[in-house]
């Protein structure tokens, strides 16, 4: 049979009677009306089954049993005080840490600049960056393992708030030696869908966007599945085959001429890059500042 826990407030009143010599003074110290304090002591006496105060015309004094209870009440209150102090320390520690999740593409090309600006504005802030694909970032945010995440997914699951921080687009890239690089007309969506490609792994925002765009067309198995945009880029440069990848991952190679962008007729591969988080609806503190920084700096120029 479980026993009821004593109310800490009434224990503080009893300690006050011992310290100050009267129930009225003890109640005032604890911010209670004396009638309420008296009723609380009576309830505690009933719960413990022993008299705690000797009441008389000149006030209330502790009984011998009350003196013993007050001794242990001081221990209990001291322990509760330590608990509150520890909780406050944990809150302060929590405020000084920021756990960020980011998809591969965003982490590689955008997050370093965002975090650099955030650190300049929040001196002493400890930042933990977790890099996963978009599906995994969403799972970490939903589970509370990240304060805020950045994803490339076309949609955001229920239970999360989101804000668009930038715009991106996927492009088809090949080496200059690939036959598609010499085409005079844009590629048709059916041709792209029918061609084995170097692709990102399932769950990545890039893969999800591509699969959504080609969902009504028959497709063969991929040439190769890789876990980052950098790995996809390296495979294309090595001549493995064509790929669909974020312009962020290949901008330098396209500008240098080592990769060529192949236009696709009627296929829209633009996408939004989003920040996602749980409660509250409006982020504050370092997490809110990071999202604001991302929105300010993260507007991409479509190539």
UniProtKB/TrEMBL annotation:
**Gene3D superfamilies in the cross-refs:** Periplasmic binding protein-like II, Winged helix-like DNA-binding domain superfamily/Winged helix DNA-binding domain
Q: Which PROSITE patterns match?
A: HTH_LYSR
Superkingdom of the source species? Bacteria
Using the record's annotation, list all stretches that form the HTH lysR-type domain: 6-63
UniProt keyword terms in alphabetical order: DNA-binding, Transcription, Transcription regulation
Pfam families hit by this protein: HTH_1, LysR_substrate
* Classification via InterPro entries: LysR_HTH_N (IPR000847), LysR_subst-bd (IPR005119), WH-like_DNA-bd_sf (IPR036388), WH_DNA-bd_sf (IPR036390)
Does Transmembrane helix appear among the keywords? no
Q: Span of the secretion signal?
A: none
- DNA-binding found in the keyword field: yes
Q: Which SUPFAM superfamilies does the protein's record reference?
A: Periplasmic binding protein-like II (SSF53850), Winged helix' DNA-binding domain (SSF46785)
The record ties this protein, via PANTHER family, to: HTH-TYPE TRANSCRIPTIONAL REGULATOR, HTH-TYPE TRANSCRIPTIONAL REGULATOR CYSL
Similarity section: Belongs to the LysR transcriptional regulatory family.
What is the protein name stated in its UniProt record? LysR family transcriptional regulator
Q: Which organism is it from?
A: Terrabacter aeriphilus
